Amino acid sequence: MNKKLETAEMDELLRAILSLETVEEAYEFFEDLCTVNEMVAMKQRFEVAKMLREERTYQDIADETGASSATISRVNRALNYGNDGYDMVLKRISK
Q1: Under 8 Å between Cβ of 51 and 65
Q2: What region, left, alpha or beta, does residue 55 occupy, with left being phi > 0 and alpha being psi -120 to 50 degrees?
Q3: Do residues 81 and 43 share a domain?
Q4: Which of 14, 37, 41, 60 has the fewest beta carbons under 10 Å from its own?
């Protein structure tokens, strides 16, 4: 975990996110918190992660999502060397 991110304020933000109970509440909160571009970027990275776990090619992912090769590489690095957050969430939502 990134120690620079671990602050009382970040803990409070993450607890706020965990308090959301429905997709509609999540939309309301994140639309207030983030810009449209930030939301699109997060959605894109999540789609890239799913496709990488499906062993899709970089070209296929780029064509389907519009993600740059740098974004795909960054997500791939997180999948292979990160904190396993993507995999944890992907397993949970596949149930």
Answers
A1: yes
A2: left
A3: yes
A4: 37
Q: What is the pLDDT along the chain (95 residues), one digit of tens a residue?
A: 677 889 999 999 999 999 999 999 999 999 999 999 999 999 999 999 999 999 999 999 999 999 999 999 999 999 999 999 999 999 999 97
- 57, 48 in Cβ contact below 8 A? no
CA 60 to chain centre: 19
* CA distance linking residue 82 with residue 89, whole number of Å: 13
Contact between residue 76 and residue 35 where contact means Cβ atoms under 8 Å apart: no
70 contact partners, CB below 8 Å, separation of at least 6: none
Rounded to two decimals, what is the model's pTM? 0.90
